[in-house]
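User: I'm curious whether this sequence folds into something compact or stays loose and floppy. Could you predict its structure so I can see for myself?
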Amino acid sequence: MKIASHRSKGEKVDIAVCAPPGFFANNPQVIRTNREIVLAYGMQQVDKVQAIKTHQHWQPFGVLTWSVSTDGGFTWRTTDRAPDVGRVLDCSYGEPLRDGGMVTISFPRTFLTTYAFLQKGQVGMMPYNNQLPARKAIPLTDFGPFGCFWFHSMIRTTDGALLAAGYSSVPGGPSSDYCTTTFLRSGDAGRSWKFFSHAPLISKTFGFSESGLLAGPKGRVLAVLRTDLDFVPILKRPKDARVGYGWFLFQMESLDNGRTWSRPVKLPIWGHPPYLLRLKSGTVVMVYGHRRPPFSVRAILSRDNGKTWDLKTLRTLREWKTGAYDIGYPQATQLADGTILCAYYGYSTPAAVDTGILQPAGIAPTGIFVSLFDEEWLAKGES
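Assistant: Here's the prediction. I'll summarize afterward.
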Protein backbone atom coordinates (compact mmCIF):
# COMPACT_ATOMS: atom_id res chain seq x y z
CA MET A 1 0.00 0.00 0.00
CA LYS A 2 1.26 3.44 -0.93
CA ILE A 3 2.30 5.59 2.02
CA ALA A 4 2.21 9.33 1.33
CA SER A 5 1.73 12.72 2.92
CA HIS A 6 0.31 14.36 -0.18
CA ARG A 7 -1.61 13.50 -3.34
CA SER A 8 -1.13 14.97 -6.80
CA LYS A 9 -4.12 15.94 -8.93
CA GLY A 10 -5.45 12.98 -10.89
CA GLU A 11 -3.88 10.41 -8.58
CA LYS A 12 -5.17 8.03 -5.90
CA VAL A 13 -3.54 7.30 -2.54
CA ASP A 14 -4.56 4.40 -0.26
CA ILE A 15 -4.09 4.58 3.52
CA ALA A 16 -4.41 1.90 6.20
CA VAL A 17 -6.26 3.66 9.04
CA CYS A 18 -6.47 0.87 11.62
CA ALA A 19 -5.72 -2.78 10.83
CA PRO A 20 -4.20 -4.55 13.85
CA PRO A 21 -3.57 -8.31 13.47
CA GLY A 22 -6.23 -10.55 14.99
CA PHE A 23 -9.05 -7.98 14.99
CA PHE A 24 -12.25 -7.59 12.99
CA ALA A 25 -13.32 -4.01 12.20
CA ASN A 26 -16.17 -3.05 9.91
CA ASN A 27 -18.61 -0.43 8.61
CA PRO A 28 -16.84 2.89 9.23
CA GLN A 29 -19.02 5.99 9.26
CA VAL A 30 -17.42 9.20 8.02
CA ILE A 31 -17.90 12.47 9.91
CA ARG A 32 -16.29 15.63 8.50
CA THR A 33 -16.10 18.70 10.72
CA ASN A 34 -14.54 22.13 10.35
CA ARG A 35 -11.47 20.80 12.18
CA GLU A 36 -11.04 17.11 11.47
CA ILE A 37 -12.28 13.92 9.82
CA VAL A 38 -13.59 11.21 12.14
CA LEU A 39 -14.22 7.56 11.35
CA ALA A 40 -16.40 5.66 13.85
CA TYR A 41 -16.61 1.87 13.74
CA GLY A 42 -16.65 -1.28 15.84
CA MET A 43 -13.63 -3.49 16.53
CA GLN A 44 -13.45 -6.92 18.16
CA GLN A 45 -11.07 -9.84 18.54
CA VAL A 46 -11.49 -12.47 15.83
CA ASP A 47 -10.83 -15.47 18.10
CA LYS A 48 -13.65 -14.45 20.45
CA VAL A 49 -16.14 -14.20 17.59
CA GLN A 50 -15.08 -17.53 16.13
CA ALA A 51 -15.85 -19.23 19.46
CA ILE A 52 -19.57 -18.38 19.32
CA LYS A 53 -22.31 -18.80 16.73
CA THR A 54 -23.08 -15.14 16.16
CA HIS A 55 -22.55 -13.20 12.97
CA GLN A 56 -19.46 -11.01 13.21
CA HIS A 57 -21.35 -7.96 11.93
CA TRP A 58 -23.34 -7.82 15.14
CA GLN A 59 -20.06 -7.04 16.90
CA PRO A 60 -20.86 -9.22 19.98
CA PHE A 61 -17.49 -8.25 21.51
CA GLY A 62 -17.26 -4.93 19.73
CA VAL A 63 -15.54 -1.90 21.18
CA LEU A 64 -16.64 1.40 19.68
CA THR A 65 -13.54 2.91 18.11
CA TRP A 66 -12.71 6.26 16.54
CA SER A 67 -9.92 7.30 14.18
CA VAL A 68 -9.26 11.02 13.75
CA SER A 69 -7.32 12.83 11.03
CA THR A 70 -6.40 16.52 10.97
CA ASP A 71 -4.34 16.42 7.75
CA GLY A 72 -6.92 15.40 5.17
CA GLY A 73 -6.82 11.66 5.79
CA PHE A 74 -3.09 10.92 5.42
CA THR A 75 -2.45 10.17 9.10
CA TRP A 76 -4.83 8.93 11.79
CA ARG A 77 -5.00 8.79 15.58
CA THR A 78 -7.11 5.91 16.90
CA THR A 79 -8.86 5.95 20.28
CA ASP A 80 -11.59 4.13 22.19
CA ARG A 81 -12.91 7.43 23.58
CA ALA A 82 -15.25 9.69 21.65
CA PRO A 83 -13.16 12.65 20.47
CA ASP A 84 -14.13 16.26 21.01
CA VAL A 85 -14.85 17.62 17.55
CA GLY A 86 -15.71 20.83 15.77
CA ARG A 87 -18.84 21.75 13.87
CA VAL A 88 -20.18 18.84 11.79
CA LEU A 89 -20.25 19.68 8.06
CA ASP A 90 -20.98 16.24 6.62
CA CYS A 91 -21.76 12.81 8.07
CA SER A 92 -22.20 9.74 5.92
CA TYR A 93 -24.41 7.86 8.38
CA GLY A 94 -26.69 10.76 9.29
CA GLU A 95 -27.17 14.47 8.67
CA PRO A 96 -25.60 17.65 10.12
CA LEU A 97 -27.82 19.87 12.26
CA ARG A 98 -27.92 23.66 12.45
CA ASP A 99 -26.41 23.64 15.95
CA GLY A 100 -23.22 22.00 14.63
CA GLY A 101 -24.19 18.52 15.78
CA MET A 102 -25.62 15.58 13.88
CA VAL A 103 -28.46 13.10 13.93
CA THR A 104 -28.23 9.42 13.09
CA ILE A 105 -30.27 6.27 13.61
CA SER A 106 -29.08 2.92 14.92
CA PHE A 107 -30.27 -0.22 16.66
CA PRO A 108 -28.71 -2.29 19.47
CA ARG A 109 -28.23 -5.96 18.71
CA THR A 110 -30.97 -7.43 20.92
CA PHE A 111 -33.21 -4.44 21.57
CA LEU A 112 -36.64 -4.64 19.96
CA THR A 113 -36.72 -1.06 18.74
CA THR A 114 -34.68 1.46 16.81
CA TYR A 115 -33.26 4.71 18.16
CA ALA A 116 -32.39 8.13 16.79
CA PHE A 117 -29.39 9.88 18.35
CA LEU A 118 -28.81 13.62 18.52
CA GLN A 119 -25.10 14.27 19.04
CA LYS A 120 -22.99 17.38 19.43
CA GLY A 121 -19.38 17.92 20.47
CA GLN A 122 -18.66 14.19 20.58
CA VAL A 123 -19.99 12.26 17.60
CA GLY A 124 -20.18 8.79 16.11
CA MET A 125 -21.90 7.24 19.11
CA MET A 126 -23.53 3.88 18.36
CA PRO A 127 -24.95 1.09 20.55
CA TYR A 128 -22.70 -1.87 21.26
CA ASN A 129 -23.05 -4.90 23.51
CA ASN A 130 -26.64 -3.91 24.33
CA GLN A 131 -25.49 -0.61 25.83
CA LEU A 132 -26.98 2.64 24.59
CA PRO A 133 -24.41 5.42 24.25
CA ALA A 134 -24.38 8.23 26.79
CA ARG A 135 -26.45 10.48 24.56
CA LYS A 136 -30.12 11.24 24.22
CA ALA A 137 -31.72 8.18 22.60
CA ILE A 138 -35.08 8.71 20.92
CA PRO A 139 -37.07 5.47 20.42
CA LEU A 140 -38.69 5.07 17.01
CA THR A 141 -41.91 3.09 16.83
CA ASP A 142 -43.84 4.19 13.73
CA PHE A 143 -42.89 1.74 10.97
CA GLY A 144 -46.23 1.81 9.15
CA PRO A 145 -47.30 -1.67 7.98
CA PHE A 146 -43.86 -3.08 8.85
CA GLY A 147 -42.73 -4.28 12.25
CA CYS A 148 -39.12 -3.13 12.13
CA PHE A 149 -36.67 -0.74 10.48
CA TRP A 150 -32.96 -1.38 9.96
CA PHE A 151 -31.40 1.98 9.15
CA HIS A 152 -28.80 2.57 6.45
CA SER A 153 -28.73 6.15 5.08
CA MET A 154 -30.17 9.64 5.51
CA ILE A 155 -30.53 12.88 3.52
CA ARG A 156 -32.17 16.27 3.87
CA THR A 157 -34.81 16.82 1.19
CA THR A 158 -35.59 20.14 -0.50
CA ASP A 159 -38.55 20.76 1.81
CA GLY A 160 -36.14 20.78 4.79
CA ALA A 161 -37.19 17.42 6.21
CA LEU A 162 -34.93 14.46 7.00
CA LEU A 163 -35.49 11.26 5.03
CA ALA A 164 -34.04 8.04 6.47
CA ALA A 165 -33.74 4.88 4.38
CA GLY A 166 -33.60 1.42 5.87
CA TYR A 167 -35.23 -1.90 5.19
CA SER A 168 -37.98 -3.97 6.73
CA SER A 169 -39.32 -7.51 6.62
CA VAL A 170 -42.48 -7.68 4.52
CA PRO A 171 -45.49 -9.20 6.33
CA GLY A 172 -46.97 -12.05 4.34
CA GLY A 173 -43.97 -12.27 2.04
CA PRO A 174 -42.57 -15.48 0.54
CA SER A 175 -40.13 -15.77 3.47
CA SER A 176 -39.45 -14.13 6.81
CA ASP A 177 -36.21 -12.86 5.21
CA TYR A 178 -38.05 -11.18 2.33
CA CYS A 179 -37.63 -7.44 2.75
CA THR A 180 -37.96 -4.10 0.99
CA THR A 181 -36.45 -0.65 1.37
CA THR A 182 -38.51 1.58 3.67
CA PHE A 183 -38.38 5.27 4.57
CA LEU A 184 -38.97 7.31 7.72
CA ARG A 185 -39.37 11.10 7.78
CA SER A 186 -38.63 13.74 10.40
CA GLY A 187 -39.84 17.31 10.12
CA ASP A 188 -38.35 18.49 13.44
CA ALA A 189 -34.58 17.98 13.02
CA GLY A 190 -34.59 14.35 14.10
CA ARG A 191 -36.56 14.67 17.36
CA SER A 192 -39.42 12.52 16.06
CA TRP A 193 -39.89 10.17 13.11
CA LYS A 194 -42.85 8.72 11.21
CA PHE A 195 -43.19 6.06 8.55
CA PHE A 196 -43.29 7.71 5.11
CA SER A 197 -43.07 5.21 2.23
CA HIS A 198 -41.49 2.05 0.85
CA ALA A 199 -39.99 0.78 -2.40
CA PRO A 200 -42.50 -0.86 -4.74
CA LEU A 201 -42.66 -4.64 -4.37
CA ILE A 202 -41.82 -5.75 -7.92
CA SER A 203 -40.74 -9.37 -7.41
CA LYS A 204 -41.16 -12.31 -5.05
CA THR A 205 -37.81 -13.75 -6.14
CA PHE A 206 -35.74 -10.93 -4.68
CA GLY A 207 -36.17 -8.02 -2.31
CA PHE A 208 -34.50 -4.68 -1.61
CA SER A 209 -32.57 -3.63 1.47
CA GLU A 210 -29.76 -1.07 2.01
CA SER A 211 -29.92 1.96 -0.27
CA GLY A 212 -27.94 5.06 -1.13
CA LEU A 213 -29.88 8.33 -1.32
CA LEU A 214 -29.29 11.58 -3.20
CA ALA A 215 -31.40 14.72 -2.87
CA GLY A 216 -32.01 16.77 -5.98
CA PRO A 217 -33.91 19.96 -6.84
CA LYS A 218 -37.68 20.44 -6.64
CA GLY A 219 -38.39 17.42 -4.47
CA ARG A 220 -36.39 14.91 -6.50
CA VAL A 221 -34.78 12.04 -4.59
CA LEU A 222 -32.69 9.29 -6.18
CA ALA A 223 -32.43 5.91 -4.44
CA VAL A 224 -30.03 3.16 -5.52
CA LEU A 225 -31.03 -0.15 -3.93
CA ARG A 226 -29.21 -3.27 -2.86
CA THR A 227 -30.99 -6.39 -4.07
CA ASP A 228 -31.47 -9.07 -1.45
CA LEU A 229 -31.67 -12.79 -2.24
CA ASP A 230 -30.92 -14.28 1.18
CA PHE A 231 -34.25 -16.13 1.21
CA VAL A 232 -33.72 -17.67 -2.25
CA PRO A 233 -31.94 -21.07 -2.53
CA ILE A 234 -28.65 -20.87 -4.41
CA LEU A 235 -29.76 -22.87 -7.45
CA LYS A 236 -32.96 -20.82 -7.83
CA ARG A 237 -31.10 -17.52 -8.05
CA PRO A 238 -30.12 -15.88 -11.33
CA LYS A 239 -26.91 -17.49 -12.63
CA ASP A 240 -24.89 -14.32 -12.09
CA ALA A 241 -26.01 -14.27 -8.42
CA ARG A 242 -24.73 -17.74 -7.54
CA VAL A 243 -21.10 -16.77 -7.02
CA GLY A 244 -20.08 -14.28 -4.36
CA TYR A 245 -22.67 -12.32 -2.41
CA GLY A 246 -25.18 -9.99 -4.03
CA TRP A 247 -26.57 -9.10 -7.44
CA PHE A 248 -27.15 -6.03 -9.58
CA LEU A 249 -28.13 -2.68 -8.10
CA PHE A 250 -31.58 -1.24 -8.84
CA GLN A 251 -32.55 2.41 -9.02
CA MET A 252 -35.76 4.37 -8.45
CA GLU A 253 -36.78 8.02 -8.22
CA SER A 254 -39.18 10.20 -6.25
CA LEU A 255 -40.45 13.59 -7.39
CA ASP A 256 -42.19 14.44 -4.10
CA ASN A 257 -39.38 14.22 -1.51
CA GLY A 258 -39.72 10.47 -1.03
CA ARG A 259 -43.48 10.08 -0.59
CA THR A 260 -43.96 8.03 -3.77
CA TRP A 261 -41.46 6.14 -5.92
CA SER A 262 -41.08 5.03 -9.52
CA ARG A 263 -40.76 1.34 -10.35
CA PRO A 264 -37.15 0.22 -9.59
CA VAL A 265 -35.06 -0.60 -12.67
CA LYS A 266 -31.93 -2.74 -12.83
CA LEU A 267 -28.59 -1.02 -13.38
CA PRO A 268 -25.68 -2.62 -15.27
CA ILE A 269 -23.69 -2.43 -12.02
CA TRP A 270 -23.14 -5.52 -9.87
CA GLY A 271 -22.49 -4.93 -6.16
CA HIS A 272 -23.74 -3.53 -2.88
CA PRO A 273 -24.40 -1.53 -0.86
CA PRO A 274 -24.14 1.84 -2.63
CA TYR A 275 -23.26 5.26 -1.25
CA LEU A 276 -24.02 8.42 -3.26
CA LEU A 277 -22.17 11.74 -3.00
CA ARG A 278 -22.74 14.91 -5.00
CA LEU A 279 -19.41 16.60 -5.73
CA LYS A 280 -18.76 20.35 -5.79
CA SER A 281 -18.82 20.21 -9.59
CA GLY A 282 -22.35 18.79 -9.56
CA THR A 283 -21.15 15.38 -10.72
CA VAL A 284 -22.36 12.43 -8.62
CA VAL A 285 -20.04 9.65 -7.47
CA MET A 286 -21.29 6.27 -6.31
CA VAL A 287 -19.05 3.93 -4.30
CA TYR A 288 -19.95 0.33 -3.49
CA GLY A 289 -18.57 -3.08 -2.63
CA HIS A 290 -18.06 -5.73 -5.31
CA ARG A 291 -18.49 -8.87 -3.22
CA ARG A 292 -17.52 -11.52 -5.73
CA PRO A 293 -14.18 -12.11 -7.50
CA PRO A 294 -12.37 -9.83 -7.91
CA PHE A 295 -13.35 -8.74 -4.37
CA SER A 296 -13.06 -4.97 -4.39
CA VAL A 297 -14.42 -1.52 -3.60
CA ARG A 298 -15.40 0.45 -6.70
CA ALA A 299 -16.49 3.94 -7.78
CA ILE A 300 -18.35 5.34 -10.78
CA LEU A 301 -19.55 8.78 -11.94
CA SER A 302 -22.85 10.20 -13.17
CA ARG A 303 -22.96 13.57 -14.91
CA ASP A 304 -26.75 13.81 -15.15
CA ASN A 305 -27.83 13.60 -11.50
CA GLY A 306 -27.84 9.81 -11.46
CA LYS A 307 -30.13 9.29 -14.43
CA THR A 308 -27.31 7.33 -16.11
CA TRP A 309 -23.93 6.04 -14.92
CA ASP A 310 -20.80 6.43 -17.03
CA LEU A 311 -19.36 2.92 -17.21
CA LYS A 312 -16.17 4.35 -18.72
CA THR A 313 -15.43 5.93 -15.33
CA LEU A 314 -15.90 2.71 -13.35
CA ARG A 315 -12.71 2.28 -11.30
CA THR A 316 -11.43 -0.02 -8.58
CA LEU A 317 -10.41 1.75 -5.38
CA ARG A 318 -8.97 -1.34 -3.74
CA GLU A 319 -8.89 -5.07 -4.54
CA TRP A 320 -8.25 -8.11 -2.33
CA LYS A 321 -6.74 -10.84 -4.48
CA THR A 322 -7.10 -13.32 -1.63
CA GLY A 323 -10.34 -12.83 0.22
CA ALA A 324 -14.06 -13.40 0.48
CA TYR A 325 -17.24 -11.35 0.47
CA ASP A 326 -16.90 -9.62 3.86
CA ILE A 327 -15.59 -6.29 2.55
CA GLY A 328 -16.80 -2.88 1.54
CA TYR A 329 -19.61 -0.73 2.94
CA PRO A 330 -17.81 2.35 1.57
CA GLN A 331 -18.86 5.84 2.58
CA ALA A 332 -17.39 9.08 1.28
CA THR A 333 -17.07 12.83 1.67
CA GLN A 334 -15.37 15.58 -0.34
CA LEU A 335 -12.77 17.85 1.23
CA ALA A 336 -12.32 21.56 0.60
CA ASP A 337 -9.51 20.98 -1.92
CA GLY A 338 -11.66 18.64 -4.02
CA THR A 339 -10.21 15.41 -2.64
CA ILE A 340 -12.74 12.59 -2.29
CA LEU A 341 -12.15 10.56 0.86
CA CYS A 342 -13.71 7.11 0.78
CA ALA A 343 -13.59 4.89 3.89
CA TYR A 344 -14.31 1.14 3.86
CA TYR A 345 -13.27 -2.10 5.52
CA GLY A 346 -11.46 -5.09 4.09
CA TYR A 347 -9.07 -7.92 4.81
CA SER A 348 -5.82 -7.10 6.57
CA THR A 349 -4.45 -10.62 6.13
CA PRO A 350 -4.22 -13.09 3.22
CA ALA A 351 -5.82 -15.76 5.45
CA ALA A 352 -9.34 -15.20 4.10
CA VAL A 353 -10.38 -17.86 1.59
CA ASP A 354 -13.22 -17.51 -0.90
CA THR A 355 -15.62 -20.48 -0.96
CA GLY A 356 -17.43 -19.23 -4.06
CA ILE A 357 -20.85 -18.93 -2.39
CA LEU A 358 -22.38 -16.85 0.38
CA GLN A 359 -20.20 -17.47 3.44
CA PRO A 360 -16.41 -17.22 3.62
CA ALA A 361 -14.49 -20.20 5.00
CA GLY A 362 -13.98 -18.43 8.34
CA ILE A 363 -13.80 -15.06 10.03
CA ALA A 364 -10.58 -13.34 9.04
CA PRO A 365 -9.05 -10.13 10.42
CA THR A 366 -10.24 -6.97 8.74
CA GLY A 367 -9.17 -3.35 9.04
CA ILE A 368 -10.35 0.15 8.20
CA PHE A 369 -8.89 1.78 5.09
CA VAL A 370 -9.35 5.00 3.12
CA SER A 371 -8.71 5.92 -0.50
CA LEU A 372 -8.00 9.54 -1.41
CA PHE A 373 -8.67 10.51 -5.02
CA ASP A 374 -10.48 13.11 -7.12
CA GLU A 375 -12.95 13.46 -9.96
CA GLU A 376 -10.09 13.72 -12.47
CA TRP A 377 -8.74 10.31 -11.39
CA LEU A 378 -12.16 8.71 -11.78
CA ALA A 379 -12.75 10.33 -15.18
CA LYS A 380 -9.63 8.60 -16.56
CA GLY A 381 -11.27 5.22 -16.17
CA GLU A 382 -9.35 1.97 -15.81
CA SER A 383 -6.03 1.98 -17.66
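Summary: The chain has one domain: 13-379. The chain has a mean pLDDT of 91.
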